[in-house]
Amino acid sequence: MRVTLVTETYFPQVNGVSRTLGELVRVLSDHGDQVQIIHPDYGAIPDPRALAVPAFRVPFYRELHLPLPPFTRVRQAIDQFRPDIVHIATEATLGLAVLRHAIRRQYPVVSSFHTNFDQYSRHYHLGWARSIITGYLRWFHGRTRETYVPSRATIRELEGLGFERLALWRRGVDATLFRPDRPRRGAIREALGFREDDVVIGHVGRLAAEKNVAHLGDALAIVAASRPRARVLIVGDGPARADLEERTRGFAHFAGYRQGEDLADHYAASDVFAMTSLTETFGNVVLEAMASGLPVAAIGSGGVGETVQPGRTGLLVDSRSPPGAITTVLIRLVDDAGLRADLAQAARHYALEQGWDAIMEGLRERYQAIVEERRASEFAVR
Description:
Elements: E1 2-6, H1 16-30, E2 34-40, E3 50-53, E4 55-57, E5 65-67, H2 72-81, E6 85-88, H3 93-105, E7 109-112, H4 117-120, H5 130-142, E8 147-149, H6 152-160, E9 166-168, H7 185-191, E10 199-204, H8 213-226, E11 230-235, H9 241-247, E12 252-254, H10 260-268, E13 272-275, H11 284-291, E14 296-299, H12 304-307, E15 314-317, H13 324-335, H14 337-352, H15 356-381
Parallel strand pairs: 1-2, 1-6, 2-3, 6-7, 7-8, 8-9, 10-11, 10-13, 11-12, 13-14, 14-15
Antiparallel strand pairs: 4-5
Helix pairs in contact: 1-15, 8-9, 8-13, 11-14
C-alpha cells in the first residue's frame, strides 16, 4: 500500500500522538508499505519520507507549530505520490487542506481523533467557542471513511455529539524499553538526592492548563507537607511549567523533556505515577508508567479509566470527586509499600500484553479493506 499520513505533530515533538504515529509508520514500513509523512517543519532534520511544511511557532505555547498556507506544494506532493489511502491525524489548517484535496481527487481518506480540543476550550477562556469547535470537528470527521478513536469512553462521548463511523484504535507500549529494571534508575535517584527509602511520585506529560496540572500541583503540595518521605519528579515541559514549579517549590524536581532510553530511566526512577488530566482520549504516559512497574493514581476520566484497573493496577478517583480525593490515594500509596508492590506487579503484567505491533496491524487491515473496496468499485464501473 501507499499511505499518506498527515499530522500537525510528529517527531521530534514529544507527546502521545507523535509517539503513536511513529509506531504506525514503523509497522507499515515493516510490512513493505510506502509511507509519505506530511508534518510541520520543526527545524530538525526530517525523516527522508517526510515533507516538512513551513510553520508558525505559537509564542504563548511553544510546542504548537501551525502550518502556514498556501499548501500548493503539499497537494503536488500527494498527487505525485499517488496514495492508496490518506490518513489525516489532526484537524487544523494542514489537515483541512488535505481533506479537501483528497475528496476532490477521490483518494480514500480516513482520520483519527486524538485530542479533545472542544474540552480544551474552557482552559483557555474560550468556552463560548466550544459548540463551534465541536461542530467543526463533527463536520471534519464526517467527511472521512472512518475515524479511529483510542478509547471506548471517547467513542461514547463522540457518538453522543453526533459523530459517526467511529472505530476503536487503542494504544500500545514498548515494554522492553519501559521496564522497572532500567540501568540508570539508581543513578538518577542518587543525582536528584532521593534516598533509598523515599517514595518518589512521578509525572510525565505536557505541562499545560488543559492537563489539569494546577490540580496536580496542589495535591502534591499536600502530600509533601504531610509525608516527608514523599518526593516528586516531573518530566515534561509546557506553558504551565512556571505555575507548577511555584506550587511545588522546594520539594519537586523538574527534568524537562526526555526521550527514548533517558525517558524510560526517569519513569523507573519513580515509585508511583500521578495523573490528574480530565481530557485524555487515551493517555499513553499512563501505559508507559505501568510498563515501568509503577502503580497509578489518577482521575478515572476518558481513556485513563479504561487503562487503569481500579484496585489492581492503580487507584482511581471519580472526576466529580472533591480536589482532596487524589491526595488521599497518593498518601495511601506512599504509606503502604505492600500495596505499591502488588499494584506495580499487576500493572507491569497488564502492560506486557499491550504491544504496538498487533494494534497497528489491526489498523493496517482496516486500511486494506477500504483500499480493496475502492478497487472493487472501480472495477465494477469498468
